[in-house]
Amino acid sequence: MKLYKLLSLSFLLATLTSCTFTENIYINDNGTGKFSVDMDGSALMEMAGDQIGNQMGANAKKDIDSTFTFKQLFAEKKDSIAKLSPDVQKELKKLENFVVTTKMSSEKKQFLMTMATDFKNVNELQDILQTASSLQKLEGGANANPLGSGFGDNKSKLSYTYDGKKFTRKAVIDQQKLAAKAKDSAADMSKMIFASSNYIVKYHFPKKIKKVSNPNALFSDDRKSITIQYTFTDYMENPDKLNFDVEFEK
User: Fold this and answer.
1) For 122, which of 32, 40, 158, 160 is 20 to 30 Å away at the CA?
2) Are 27 and 122 in contact (CB under 8 A)?
3) Is the per-residue pLDDT at 75 higher than 70?
């Protein structure tokens, strides 16, 4: 299946029902690690997998187990990218090393998608989710973001810091963009679509955690991992609610 066709199919599924989005960060002793966002839309396949297969044709009836990089996608769209401004091209380049994996089966009632990349330092992840919204600027790219149109575009600047003693996740809201979004009728549609979706963060560290500023954090047995669940509405409308600090034992 062509990459763009697969992305369009995934986008349509992602916007038809509630999904669970999970943001994962794994940090090693030396500060390197892996970042990923997982989307689980299996609830839709459970409810209407057969009907979706019928509506979308033969390809959707078959099980999909696909992996590609954005670098491959950009190679397909190189002529379109060449027409974009240098700033947008620079933004897209940040996504080159992301690997996108899709698993979909109407028989197994499964629809899973993961966007993942390695990093040398968490600082490299500055605004990485917001960068994904730049995919819409590709020619015919309205559905190019595999996690759904507008995902990551929650009108904030997101940053991560880690120095071995403390980890911080911080989103700073852009008030001007937020005001413009409030006037956008499409925002009401997005709010309705994701009203029952969840956004979960799962972070894994090389050291034991002393404390977390969010009281809802759940610890793993070894106290090296935390899980915090939010509503997707908070992620989109109140991204600063997802801010927190983690302090580690000496």
Assistant:
1) 40
2) yes
3) yes
